[in-house]
Write a structure and sequence with these properties.
Layout lengths: L6 H11 L11 E2 L2 H10 L7 E5 L5 H9 L2 E6 L5 H7 L6 E5 L7 H9 L4 E6 L5 H10 L4 E9 H7 L10 H9 E9 L4 E2 L6 E8 L10 H13 L5 H7 L7 H10 L13 H11 L1
Parallel strand pairs: 2-3, 2-5, 3-4, 5-6
Antiparallel strand pairs: 1-8, 6-9, 7-9
Length: 285
């Protein structure tokens, strides 16, 4: 099968099957071989790896992954793409094509079935509209993962690696950094896609912590505090948490915890580091 990193080959496949892009699935196919190589290189794919590719489309990146990986699990939501994938990937035996919404799958079970429960790598060109639910679903369900290397909207990638006090810093930054070490590998022009999106993208690699450096007694409570503090970003942390209606957490409790942490009563959530949110959570248990 011809290399789909070539735009002419991509067009031939789409014409052969009379494929129409589905806006509801956020379909934008990569048509730049250099970017494809950079993604696979950035993910560090070797023959020892089992890779989960979310949204393979017509198999453009899948071809590159199958050349490098031991096995590739392809999860595609659009049933109209399944016969195309079976065609474009027919030369590769080291793959499984699954027609499903990745959010509905038991990914822990997939890791057991295809890799004996050992950590897998995720590689994907994610639709913009569903990036955050997919990433948080992967992280919060504690699927055994080595890394997640994804093409996403540049703005979202910037938020994932943002630090305290910046405009991009928020609940997503803290959640991603709690579970992983995020690193933007490259920025990709909108011209590298078909159809062309309205914004540029970034490739970001999220490397899972082997031993989480942030220690917290109640992970769920910490994330409730984080979400509450950013839901009302302009308010002080005290007011944000007090107004959130969290059980057993009132103004006096928050003020006492901040005093113990030597933080001002007027501090905002956007000023706190991940470690400070963990400490706050432990004090408010």
């Amino acid at each position: 099968m011809a290399d789909l990193g070539n735009i002419s080959n991509t067009k031939r496949v789409l014409e052969k099957y009379g494929f129409n892009f589905q806006k509801k699935f956020g379909q934008n196919f990569l048509i730049d071989a250099n970017v494809l190589e950079n993604i696979v290189d950035g993910a560090g794919i070797t023959s020892d790896d089992v890779v989960l590719e979310i949204g393979p489309g017509i198999g453009t990146m899948t071809q590159y992954l199958c050349e490098r990986a031991g096995f590739v699990i392809c999860v595609e939501i659009d049933k109209n793409l399944i016969p195309i994938l079976e065609d474009t990937l027919m030369d590769y035996e080291n793959k499984e094509i699954i027609n499903a919404d990745v959010l509905d799958l038991d990914l822990n079970e997939l890791a057991v079935r295809y890799n004996g429960g050992s950590p897998i790598k995720v590689v994907a060109n994610l639709p913009y509209y569903i990036t955050t639910p997919i990433i948080m679903g992967l992280l919060e369900s504690h699927v055994p993962l080595k890394s997640i290397t994804i093409m996403i909207q540049k703005e979202v990638a910037d938020r994932m690696q943002a630090g305290p006090g910046t405009k991009d810093y928020g609940a997503l930054s803290l959640a991603v950094q709690y579970y992983t070490l995020p690193e933007v590998l490259t920025t990709v022009s909108a011209n590298c896609f078909m159809p062309r999106p309205n914004v540029d993208s970034s490739v970001i690699r999220l490397t899972l912590h082997e031993d989480n450096p942030t220690k917290v007694k109640d992970e769920e409570l910490m994330f409730k505090l984080i979400r509450a503090s950013f839901n009302q970003r302009r308010k002080t942390l005290v007011n944000g948490l007090t107004n959130a209606g969290l059980s057993g957490i009132g103004k006096d409790e928050v003020l006492k915890a901040l005093e113990e942490m030597e933080l001002s009563a007027t501090v905002r959530g956007e000023a706190l580091t991940l470690e400070q949110f963990a400490r706050l959570s432990d004090l408010l248990m």
